[in-house]
Design goal:
With 145 residues, the protein is mostly beta strands. It has one domain: BH3618-like (Roll). 8% of the residues lie in helices and 33% in strands. The strands form 2 sheets. Strands 3, 4, 5, 6, 7, 8, 9, 10 and 11 form a 9-stranded antiparallel beta sheet that branches. The chain has a two-stranded antiparallel sheet with strand order 1-2.
Length: 145
């Protein structure tokens, strides 16, 4: 097991084989390419995308289908090339969560983080359309948690 001292979770142990690589980084964080998912049963389905390159960088996230059960993923050819994936149904899509200015919780459904669990590679798949918002409100009545 490897360890990292994080701001959010203190000393955190993780399996290096569970690390997720973002070959192109994340928009705005291109130099941060290694992450690990942290799950806490008490707040499921919310989980955390913790940077292994920068212990202060951690994104709360949730499965897009827990937010919108009818969500339709859209990937570009570049996204698929970076993922090294062949089967879209096996991919994990997560929406990064935020609460701007301590306002209501929102989810970025416009640019979900997409992970191929087989290759352990991921991308932030920015949609070319405007079907979804980067500040989709989390409405307790429609969310699946």
């Amino acid at each position: 097991m490897a360890r990292i001292l994080t701001r959010q979770f203190g000393l955190f142990e993780y399996d290096p084989a569970a690390a997720i690589e973002f070959p192109a980084g994340l928009p705005g964080f291109e130099a941060r390419r290694q992450f690990v998912l942290i799950e806490r049963a008490s707040i499921a389905p919310i989980l955390f995308l913790q940077s292994l390159d920068s212990p202060d960088l951690c994104f709360p996230a949730a499965p897009v289908r827990a937010i919108d059960p009818q969500y339709e993923l859209a990937l570009t050819a570049d996204d698929l090339r970076l993922l090294g994936s062949g089967a879209a149904e096996d991919l994990i899509a997560l929406a990064i969560l935020s609460a701007p200015n301590d306002g209501p919780l929102t989810a970025n459904l416009l640019a979900p983080v997409v992970i191929d669990p087989r290759s352990r590679r991921a991308v932030q798949a920015v949609r070319m359309d405007r079907r979804y918002s980067h500040r989709h409100p989390i409405v307790k009545e429609t969310a699946c948690w």
